[in-house]
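Notes continue from the previous slide.

Worked example: a multi-chain complex. Inputs as given:
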Amino acid sequence: MRVSLYRDTGVVLRVQKLGEADRIITLLTRQHGKVRAVAKGVRRTTSRFGARLEPFGHVDVQFYTGRTLDIVTQVETLDAFGVGLVGDYQRYTAACAVLETADRLTAEEGEPVLRLYLLVAGALRALADGERDPSLVLDAFLLRAMAFAGWAPAVVECARCGDPGPHRAFSVQAGGSVCVRCRPAGSASPAADTLTLLGALLHGDWAIAEAVESGARRETSGLVAALLQWHLERQLRSLPLVERRARPTAAAVEETS
Amino acid sequence: MYEGPVQDLIDELGRLPGVGPKSAQRIAFHLLAAEPADIARLQDALQRVKEGVVFCEVCGNVSEETQCRICRDARRDSTVVCVVEEPKDVVAVERTREFKGRYHVLGGALDPLSGVGPDQLRIRQLLARLGAADGGAEISEIIIATDPNTEGEATATYLVRMLRDFPGLTVTRLASGLPMGGDLEFADELTLGRALSGRRAM
């Protein structure tokens, strides 16, 4: 049984209109997992905390336990990621996919998912800073979020028999790289760079990831999206709308200068 | 649970936005007690709104004819176009009596979380409108008046990117800051921050 008043930090995943001027806010919190709560009067221009409860907001919130949904009573901004994100459409669409994935991966409300919360906050911070390619940040987030959910793809060893790789074939249904003996019909044959990038993103090796050319980056994005949608068993609405414009690699920039 | 038609009416009213079960019940019993002439007027209004209202072929606003009242009005300034999300935003800007130009209604804001991308909005029509002469005059300014929230700001950013290659076109955004009649101490840091960055010399 939760106490009548509780406080937590969280990231605003989604907002829905409710009645005349209220909103239902979906937050991914540090201690209480996903929380859906009513924020009263936040759509009015006179609201004292409406602006803080926009998607991408990283906030310190106080809730009052309601009968069906909890009520937001106080909000303080920790990081206004939205301010940096809305100024760049590519980063905005990537951040939307981060939020939707986090929402889908947390089916149960009130179940603590600390690692996912930290991952979401980290991904939004990286996207808002704008130092890394948004497409790479998104793919790294999706791969690690899948790993937390128990769906990490096999990148080197065979996903079926565990035969040490690297292998040439990749099967979404099998869960990653597959050896010649286990390879199911219709498996993809991605470039070696693509598998290297998958591994680098999964383990956070940015030096390797950022050196990979745009063709392999596009192929990686396609495989990551296919893996996620296979495991979630439904299509994410935001993923097809993500703008994928790969930034040139450091080597390519040096060549042109 | 009420019998047949009364319950059906409550159920239908309950599907309207912002109408809960209690409100639906109150409206249903109000209608039950109303004069037949009042009901007929309501019935007629409902029918006309579905059959008689179309979207203006120029700006996308709700209209009774192929072009809305504002697009037909020759006295309005054709060189300035205010881009809004919804028809209700046209009414909000018109209430100010400050704007004498024309409008362009997008039909929403870019919201990937709800599956709304550029192709679902009337952005292509805006670009076509800019390419062609509008009412005999070239458009010289686009005022982006999308909502000052995450989706509205992202839509504004996207529009700026699409419009920056039109020669001689000025793209402006509605100012945002403190509401009239408020106290500074109660302003949240995001609104106050934008008010500071958008301050003007007096």
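Summary box: Residues 214-232 of chain A form the longest helix (19 residues). Helices of chain A lie at 81-85, 89-105, 114-129, 134-148, 192-203, 206-209, 214-232, 250-256.
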